[in-house]
Write a structure and sequence with these properties.
By secondary structure, this protein is of the alpha+beta class. It contains four helices and 14 strands. This is Nucleic acid binding OB-fold tRNA/helicase-type. It comes from Candidatus Limivivens merdigallinarum.
């Protein structure tokens, strides 16, 4: 009898303990599942927030790109359309004068730029009266033909019209120092740019065989008043720069500054990113920094 009672009590106790353990395990599993669900929900919420943020960023970038694009008149190309046009295609652009190179026999050569890119206008029909009105910032419309000469993209055989009542725009300078020697540099062709920390190198030799810092004309055949050519290096690579005498003649500060350069000096420069068989900037300012 005692054995039966004892056995009954033992079985009852075992069942109770098993039930308690099972309940504890069930509670633990429930807690784990709840925590996992909460974590999943939190992760999904964070992912949704990130997706929303990404979408907002993309929308903001698209809006910024749209805002930065030039508003063009009917029938006028955007800069992208101009660049996509084939050589010899007729082009119609609106742009802003940044500097004047020359005028001769009712033909003007201009450095121009809008908010999306730059355009070099070569020998476009322009009266002397209108040429005098082309101060920096003046908005003009040019109809002509897209051309390429030794790598330089330009508008030739064009006609210049001043846009009456047009807004004004002076392009900010772009530092392209780090782009020297890269394929990306040409994306800024004809823009107003700056170079910093270049070292003056020998441009050639004088009649006595001494190294000189500049030459009159590319081969040294010129005299005072002609174009100046000089070399400067960065990271072991040497580049040629030009003082275009029609743009900056021998009465300008930059012409005098280049004539006074010494090999080994460190200089900063500003100018227009012209191209001739490779990069050949037309420099408008030179400052010796070391």
């Amino acid at each position: 009898m005692k054995k039966s009672v004892a056995l009954f009590l033992t079985l009852s106790l075992t069942a109770a303990l098993s039930g308690s353990a099972l309940a504890s395990e069930t509670e633990t599993e429930t807690e784990v599942a709840t925590e996992a669900a909460a974590e999943t929900e939190g992760t999904e919420t964070e992912a949704a927030k990130e997706d929303t943020a990404d979408a907002e960023t993309e929308a903001s970038e698209d809006a910024s790109e749209s805002e930065s694009a030039e508003e063009k008149s009917e029938g006028v190309m955007t800069y992208a359309e101009y660049m996509d046009a084939a050589i010899d295609d007729e082009v119609v652009i609106e742009t802003y004068v940044q500097a004047k190179q020359s005028w001769w026999e009712d033909k003007a050569t201009l450095y121009t730029q809008d908010r999306d890119g730059a355009y070099f206008i070569y020998d476009a029909a322009c009266s002397e009266e209108d040429y005098e009105k082309l101060v920096p910032g003046t908005k003009i419309k040019v109809t002509g033909y897209k051309a390429e000469w030794s790598g330089e993209i330009e508008v030739m055989d064009g006609t210049v019209e001043i846009v009456e009542g047009g807004d004004e725009y002076i392009a900010p300078i772009t530092d392209v120092t780090d782009l020297l020697g890269t394929d990306e540099l040409i994306d800024h062709q004809n823009e107003y740019v700056e170079f910093k920390g270049l070292t003056v190198e020998a441009a050639g030799q004088d009649e006595d065989g001494n190294d000189v810092a500049f030459l009159y004309n590319y081969d040294g055949s010129g005299t005072d008043g002609d174009d100046l050519y000089f070399n400067a290096s960065l990271n072991g690579e040497t580049y040629t720069f030009t003082i275009e005498s029609y743009l900056c003649d021998n009465t300008t500060d930059v012409y005098a500054a280049v004539k006074n350069l010494e090999i080994g000096q460190t200089i900063d420069m500003e100018g227009f990113l012209y191209w001739y068989e490779g990069v050949n900037p037309h420099i408008t300012s030179v400052t010796v920094v070391e």
